[in-house]
Amino acid sequence: MQTVLSGIRSTGNLHLGNYFGAIKNFIKMQHENNCYFFVADYHSLTTHPDPAHLHDNVRKVLSEYLACGIDPDVATIYIQSDVPEVTELYLLLSMNAYVGELERTTTFKEKIRKQPENINAGLLTYAVLMAADILIHNAHKVPVGKDQEQHLEMTRKFARRFNQMYKTDFFNLPQAYNFGEKLVKVPGLDGSGKMGKSEGNGIYLSDSPKAIKKKVMRAVTDSGPTKANQEKPEAIQNLFSLMQLVSTPNTVQYFDDKYNSCEIRYGDMKKQLSEDITNFTNPYRERIEEIYRNDEYLRKVAVQGAEKAKINAQKTLKTVREIMGFKNF
Ligand code: TYM
User: Fold this and answer.
1) Which terminus, N or C, of the chain has the lesser number of Cβ atoms within 10 Å?
2) Confidence at 191, pLDDT banded by 50, 70, 90
3) How far is the CA of 147 from the centre of ligand 1 (A)?
4) pLDDT, tens digit (0-9, with 9 covering 90-100), for 136-177
5) Mean of the per-residue pLDDT values for the chain?
6) Beta bridge partners of 176
7) pLDDT digit string (tens) for 57-85?
8) CA-CA-CA-CA torsion sign (273, 143, 85, 82)
């Protein structure tokens, strides 16, 4: 049986990118694999969250995971900071991660641009902590969106380096996974790029129908095609890409035909898209609210998950320490 691991940073609510990039694949996998799903609260520290909100952010993401259909009796669901073995592995791996390669990571370069006032060492070693998350369970597969592909590549690099250095084949080389298809990049509706928490362009599973409508109606478009079958500019393609995720194939075809014959009315398309997103998110929103209020259930899930995750994490760490030459007196 293969081990699958997926994680999400606790820096905001889950958006459609998180769902279609990672969670949907994970849900499909949870019954056939040994699955670990965690809330990455240590990773959220890179942006210095207010202590008054830290716990609530974790609680929100945990509620949202569960509302999406991740089953705590089937998969192991836990909070990263409840399994401190991860931090020891992070330290051990960081000794073989070189500053030059960390500085060249795309996400690090982006962060430098976005938060020049806070280029902390945690940002530089973000990929090492992520590798520790994955390798602590020696995962084979990691369902992620396209944006995390490079981090997975680095995880393989660190795992391979460890294996070579200590002449072992202990670590698996984990693969980013989307059922053999290309990794997904869910776009934002602001004309370019991906949907993301830090991009501020997310459509969240917990958004009200009114909020969804407002966001979709504001989406960037243009004055419309002037030639039949002309290529779609990025902003328009993004609308279609989102539609492909939540609408029926007939609906997508209808608007595609309208675009190709230069008869498209973006207002109609946006109205349809916001309705389809709302129909998609509605059941999740209701479940999120219910679970979020259920203190006892959330505590039970977190405690049970941490216990299960720790057993495996301790096993991995013990072996890693032995391989590296640590011995008890
Ligand atoms: P995060 O919290 O930004 O995103 C969580 C998951 O959602 C995917 N995702 C997307 N997929 C497609 N299109 C998008 N627009 C989009 N936005 C987000 C991400 O690829 C990710 O799979 N560093 C990670 C959290 C993490 C982690 C891990 C993930 C920490 N350790 C170990 C996997 C394994 C992050 O910030 O993801």
Assistant:
1) C
2) confident
3) 7
4) 999 999 999 999 999 999 999 999 999 999 999 999 999 999
5) 95
6) 142
7) 999 999 999 999 999 999 999 999 999 99
8) positive
| Pocket-testing residue among 3, 8, 62, 238, ligand 1, by greatest number of atoms within 8 A of Cβ | 8
Residues at CB less than 6 angstroms from ligand 1: 5-9, 17-18, 21-22, 40, 43, 130, 133-134, 142, 144-148, 184-186, 194-196
pLDDT at 193: 83
CATH superfamily to which 3-184+294-324 belongs: HUPs (3.40.50.620)
Listed by start position, the domains of the chain span: 3-184+294-324, 209-289
By the 10 Å C-beta count (0-12 exposed, 13-18 middle, 19+ buried), 270 is classed as buried
Does 215 participate in catalysis according to the annotation? Answer: no
60 is catalytic: no
Q: How far apart are CA 279 and CA 25, in angstroms?
A: 20
- 47 burial class (0-12, 13-18, 19+ CB within 10 angstroms)? middle
* Residue with CA at minimum distance from ligand 1 atom 20: 145
Rounded Cα distance, 197 and 30, in Å: 25
Centre of ligand 1 to C-alpha 166, Å, is 30
**CA–CA separation, 236 vs 270, rounded Å?**
11
Q: How remote is the CA of residue 5 from the centroid of ligand 1, in Å?
A: 12
- Identify whether the C-beta of residue 11 lies closer than 8 Å to the C-beta of residue 197: yes
| DSSP code per residue over 152-186 | HHHHHHHHHHHHHHTT---S---EE-STTSPPP-P
Cα dist. 291→67, 69, 288 in Å?
Answer: 7, 12, 5
Atom 4 of ligand 1: nearest residue by CA position: 8
Q: What is the pLDDT of residue 219?
A: 92
The CATH superfamily of 209-289 is Tyrosyl-Transfer RNA Synthetase (1.10.240.10)
Candidate list 24, 60, 197, 215, residue with the active-site label:
197
